[in-house]
Amino acid sequence: MWFLQMVPFLIMIGVVLWQTWRLTRRDQAWGPKITLMAFWVYALAIVALCLAPTFYHFGAHQASYIWIGRAMVIYRPFQDLDLEYWLNLLLTLPLGIFFGLTQRWSWRNLLGLGLLMGFGLETIQFGLDQLIDLQRVVDIDDVITNFGGTVVGGGVYWCLRNTRLVAYFQVAKK
């Protein structure tokens, strides 16, 4: 059963290796290459932190929860604002920055990405808990912090969008 729990992470390692190989073959400036490679390493870190079996905890859950199948679900927000809450916000902040660097900028699309990231990760965790007992906690606060971190990261990009640094690493054309 332990091997099945590692399947999402192993698939992502394969995707990162494939994308890295693809990127090194592109005829492109170094700035965009670095951005895209950093994005794939970041994606690998997200998968490792969110979709690998839980072997760590930054805090004890004091929040009200229910069990749905094999998944512990925390359904009431803002009950347990511990270190894990704030780390989760920081976890998705780079996604908003990568969004700005790699896509045509739009607040509407950024908000959609934030919602997709929040609901998507928790839905995948819930599904994998049911299928292979991933031992993750499905938490409404994670949806909120993933959304918030993505939007804050997009705001950081938006504030810096006209600088030379951003121009060097920009992948998408303005």
Automatic annotation (TrEMBL):
InterPro entries, per database record: Teicoplanin_resist-assoc, VanZ-like
Transmembrane portions of the chain: 6-24, 36-56, 85-102, 109-128, 143-160
Source species, domain of life: Bacteria
Alphabetic keyword roster: Membrane, Transmembrane, Transmembrane helix
Residue intervals of the VanZ-like domain: 39-160
Pfam family, one: VanZ
Name by which UniProt lists this protein: VanZ-like domain-containing protein
